[in-house]
């Protein structure tokens, strides 16, 4: 399945000119990645009928859009590396990342516009609505940088828009292209949306409590940049006045050594048992995802590959 996606992406023909516009697009797509979103599209589609050209077109449009967001995210965040290679704005420059990223966005719309399935108009509307929601989520995330009163509900809505809706779009897209019943398409969307929320909360958790060898990056990065994560928001909410003052002081301290900052913030998290709270919320999202998955009206054998894939995203085995 992954091979089908890679082959389709590899055969997308970009113009040779103007020089410098399309090379970063190829560079970005060739970095690979897990291709989570297009795999979701294909797995959902396969529950109803074998994949065809329209399935791959829809899956590729979502992956193209996702990679567009990475070019701009890396530039906005000042990230140096993406998937072990220099980020596009570092390999080329900021202007290139903006322009090539914009071109990727347009290419993603060209792809979805070429879909000729029976419900192509519905597929396009879903795609358009999702791309707008992702931008809304990114803006909320930017707004939160200047606030210390972000609530858990606000945070969950932000990550739903920034991360989850694209996963949900990918799963529902597979159902739409396969002409699945509307109820199943909606269940697919809700299932993937909850998986996306659980996935992001787990990412927040692993940034503090993960094994760097398994997590794939050093822990504490969110603490060092003062990122509003589920853990920090709940720590600020549940802290005593003294703990809250210390926490805010640590986050704003640019002199303290990184290792000490991470250690002291983590000590506050431990005192408030934020790890347990986070794991509980992840489990809740996981259970809700399972309920939506169970509502999909196909046999367990047919839909098992989709659930197995969801489990791999969360490192779950049950």
Give the topology, please.
Blueprint: H1 2-10, H2 23-30, H3 36-46, H4 53-77, E1 81-82, E2 85-86, H5 88-91, H6 94-113, H7 120-144, H8 152-177, H9 182-209, H10 212-215, H11 221-224, H12 230-238, H13 241-251, H14 258-271, H15 274-294, H16 300-314
Antiparallel strand pairs: 1-2
Which features does this protein show?
single chain, 318 residues, mainly alpha, two-stranded antiparallel ribbon, 2 strands, globular
Description of the molecule:
- It is a single chain.
- This protein has 318 residues and is mostly helical.
- It is 74% helix and 1% strand.
- It contains 16 helices and two strands.
- A two-stranded antiparallel sheet has the order 1-2.
- The longest helix is centred in the middle third of the chain and has 28 residues, at 182-209.
- The model has no long low-confidence stretch (mean pLDDT 94).
TL;DR of this structure?
With 318 residues, this protein is mainly α. 74% of the residues lie in helices and 1% in strands.
């Amino acid at each position: 399945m992954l091979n089908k996606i890679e082959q389709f992406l590899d055969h997308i023909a970009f113009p040779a000119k103007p020089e410098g516009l399309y090379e970063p697009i190829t560079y970005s797509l060739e970095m690979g990645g897990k291709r989570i979103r297009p795999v979701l599209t294909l797995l959902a589609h396969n529950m109803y009928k074998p994949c065809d050209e329209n399935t791959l077109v829809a899956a590729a449009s979502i992956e193209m859009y996702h990679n567009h967001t990475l070019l701009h995210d890396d530039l906005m965040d000042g990230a140096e590396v993406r998937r072990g290679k220099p980020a596009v704005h570092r390999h080329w420059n900021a202007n290139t990342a903006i322009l090539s990223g914009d071109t990727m966005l347009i290419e993603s719309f060209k792809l979805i516009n070429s879909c000729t399935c029976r419900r192509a108009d519905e597929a396009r509307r879903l795609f358009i609505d999702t791309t707008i929601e992702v931008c809304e989520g990114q803006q909320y995330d930017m707004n939160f940088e200047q606030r210390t009163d972000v609530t858990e509900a606000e945070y969950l809505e932000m990550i739903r828009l920034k991360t989850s809706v694209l996963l949900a779009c990918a799963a529902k897209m597979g159902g739409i292209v396969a002409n699945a019943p509307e109820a199943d398409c909606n269940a697919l969307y809700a299932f993937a949306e909850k998986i996306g929320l659980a996935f992001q909360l787990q990412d927040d958790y692993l940034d503090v409590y993960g094994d760097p060898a398994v997590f794939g990056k050093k822990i504490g990065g969110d603490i060092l940049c003062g990122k509003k994560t589920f853990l920090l928001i709940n720590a600020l909410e549940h802290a005593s006045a003294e703990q809250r003052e210390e926490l805010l002081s640590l986050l704003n301290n640019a002199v303290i050594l990184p290792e000490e900052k991470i250690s002291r913030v983590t000590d506050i998290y431990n005192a408030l048992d934020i790890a347990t709270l986070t794991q509980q919320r992840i489990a809740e999202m996981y259970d809700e995802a399972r309920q939506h998955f169970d509502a999909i009206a196909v046999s367990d054998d047919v839909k098992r590959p989709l659930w197995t894939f969801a489990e791999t995203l969360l490192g779950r085995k049950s």
